[in-house]
Amino acid sequence: MTVRRTPVDLVDPHGRTVRDLRISVTDRCNFRCTYCMPEEGMVWLDRTELLTYDEIERIARIAVGHFGIDSIRLTGGEPTVRAHLPRLIEGLAALRLADGTKVDLALTTNGATLRNVAGELRAAGLDRINVSLDSLRPDRFLAITRRDELANVLEGIVEAKRAGFDPVKVNAVIERGTNDDEILDLARWGRGIGVEVRFIEFMPLDATNEWERAKVVSQAEIVSTIDEVFPLEQVPARGAAPADRWRYRDGAGTIGVIPSVTHPFCGDCDRVRLTSDGQFRTCLFATDEFDLKGPMRRGASDDELAGIIESAVGTKWAGHQIGKIEFVRPSRSMSQIGG
Ligand code: SAM
Ligand code: SF4
């Protein structure tokens, strides 16, 4: 579906142009990762609170058509637990920019069911996939995710490659005292099977409020740990991408690091977010949200919804304040916002 209007750039007060929309399709999840959710007691949104697929597609169409947003990532919670996800992907994959280009469509998943759905997601029009995997040891994987699913996730990664996703990227959150002794094993494994492992610094977005600065393993430490054994050279300029990237000097692929705490990429941030209950956010750490669902359900026009998006982007801050005294945790945790 080509959107026939001339888009205007959505530029925030700090001169950054928004290009990327992260859409959470559900707050629910089949895992309970310790750095994200408590074991029990998460309160889920009522299903009537969730945007329908038609509503999500409408907001995405406005983002693409009015503002030339050219990249959409589906996340959650766990996006694959929402029924009929390929239907949403088909709808979003049909979106075209004014010049006829397809919008880049990506998904972040814990991979538990990927072995069964990778082909279907690919066939529906998904371009890229990131799978989360923090440990290669079954007992530790179980301790982190509270689910005995390592074998299925590993199978899912192989199946995603077989389905044609290239590259498959793997996200690993590194937490001091939990899995920081596996940095090298994860890197070695990624080299071996040809996936880019992206190491993520632990962020203060866990639902149980256990984040401490001392649990953050820095980008510098991650890179030097790998470099000592597998020499690395940095890939220049990440632009608006959150990951800094390094390539192995022996040509065996690349790694990424998302240094949200020690080297935030806020200066180049080009993204905005839509929660599963239709709240528009201009930062993962934002403390304000802008309601799109209410106005949409009360009959707002596309131009009115675009106006809300524009006003929201007008409030986007220069950057988050993790580690500083003024930092205020957002009232929602990662899975409720959409990581
Ligand atoms: N359920 C999917 C998954 O785990 O890939 C998608 C949603 S999850 C919230 C998105 C990403 O956020 C995952 O890669 C996860 O590891 C990461 N994440 C969750 N909590 C985090 C935290 N406190 N700090 C850093 N990354 C976190
Ligand atoms: Fe679920 Fe992803 Fe959060 Fe783990 S990180 S609990 S898989 S939403």
Kindly describe this structure.
The chain is α/β, with parallel strands linked by helices and 339 residues long. The chain has a single domain, classed as Aldolase class I (TIM Barrel, Alpha-Beta Barrel). It contains ten helices and twelve strands. A hairpin with an 8-residue loop joins strand 11 and strand 12. Helix 1 packs parallel to helix 2, helix 1 packs across helix 9 and helix 3 packs parallel to helix 5. The longest helix is centred in the N-terminal third of the chain and has 15 residues. The two termini are 28 Å apart. Bound molecules: S-adenosylmethionine and iron/sulfur cluster. The site of S-adenosylmethionine has 20 residues, from strand 3, strand 5 and helix 10.
Task: Give a quick precis of the structure.
The protein has 339 residues and is an alpha/beta fold. Helix content is 29%, strand content 17%.
What is the count of distinct domains?
1
> Tell me, what's the shape?
globular
Q: What is the arithmetic mean of pLDDT?
A: 92
Mind summarizing the main beta sheet?
Answer: 12 strands, mixed
- In the CATH scheme, the class would be Alpha Beta
Based on CA atoms alone, the radius of gyration comes out at 19 Å
The helix tally amounts to 10
CATH superfamily: Aldolase class I
- Topology order in helix (H) and strand (E) letters: EHEHEHEHHEHEHEEEEEEHHH
* Strands ordered across the widest β-sheet: 7-8-9-6-5-4-3-2-1-10-11-12
CATH topology name, in short, is TIM Barrel
The distinct bound ligands, ions and cofactors come out as: S-adenosylmethionine, iron/sulfur cluster
The helix fraction, in percent, is 25-40%
Uncertain segments: none
Q: Proportion of β residues? A: 15-25%
Q: For the terminal residues, how far apart are their CA atoms?
A: 28 Å
Q: Count of DSSP E strands?
A: 12
